[in-house]
Amino acid sequence: MTRFTLRKPLTLAAACLLLAACQSAPPIRYYTLVPAKPGEAVPAADPAYRVIVEPVSVPAQVDMPYMVVREGRSQLVPVEAQRWAAPLADEVRAALIDRFGTVVAGPGAAADGSLPLYRLRVALRRFDSVLGRQALVDAAWTVENIATPEQTVTCDSQVAASIADGFPALADGHQRAVADLASRISVGLDTLNAGKTDDVCMAANSR
User: Fold this and answer.
1) Quick one: which of 81, 89, 120, 188 has the fewest CB in 10 Å?
2) What is the CATH number of domain 49-204?
3) Is-contact 37 105, C-beta < 8 A?
4) CA atoms of 23 and 68, how far apart (whole Å)
């Protein structure tokens, strides 16, 4: 009898703690690197070339479903309630595809000779998130002319966007940083398509 009367309050207390924990758990929020489309569609200009975007590689430290923020000089903190809508590598690739209006790699793309066809490879070396300060993207990217592989150039670009406090601002900062990276790559592709192979990296990073 004594054992039963002691266990009942403990069981009730445990249930209350579990209920409180469930109620206090923060909601999971999802973010994307693909920008929203404007309300009124703007007709796209006729492209001068087509681009195949290969799968993107990201640093292992941030290759996870949720955001990872930097604290201090050396600490990385995963925030499980703040997540990317897709794996980070897929989010970056989707943003690049959205920028270039690319084709899917395959026999059909390779056989289409109406426009020059380029292959784009992007490897992120850093994807730093500092709340209230900046979103930084550091990437090596390679553009290759499919028809003439000797026309291949590899460049480095580092882009940082200043941000306000909060995770929505952090996601927006990374979206802007990736868009800036895509714009630099676009300038590089324009330069390569004009036959100025030696000027690609300088032109891309001078914007």
Assistant:
1) 81
2) 3.40.50.10610
3) no
4) 24
| 5/144: higher pLDDT | 144
Residue 172 Cα to chain centre, angstroms: 11
Kind plus residue range of the DSSP H or E element containing 161: strand 152-162
Instruction: Point out which residues pair with 69 in neighbouring strands.
Output: 77
61-91 pLDDT per residue, tens: 999 999 999 998 889 999 999 999 999 999 9
Residue 64 amino acid letter: M
Please tell me the distance from the alpha carbon of residue 56 to that of residue 125, in angstroms, as a whole number: 11
Residue among 103, 128, 98 at smallest CA distance from 36: 98
For the chain, domain boundaries: 49-204
Q: Which residue has the tokens 């489309």?
A: 37
Q: Taking 50 as the threshold, does the pLDDT of residue 152 lie above it?
A: yes
| Number of CB atoms found within 10 A of residue 91's CB | 22
> CB under 8 Å to 147, separation ≥6 — which residues?
113, 116, 117
Closest CA to 66 of 92, 26, 22, 31: 31
Contact residues for 34 (Cβ-Cβ < 8 A; gap 6+) = 91, 94, 95, 98, 175
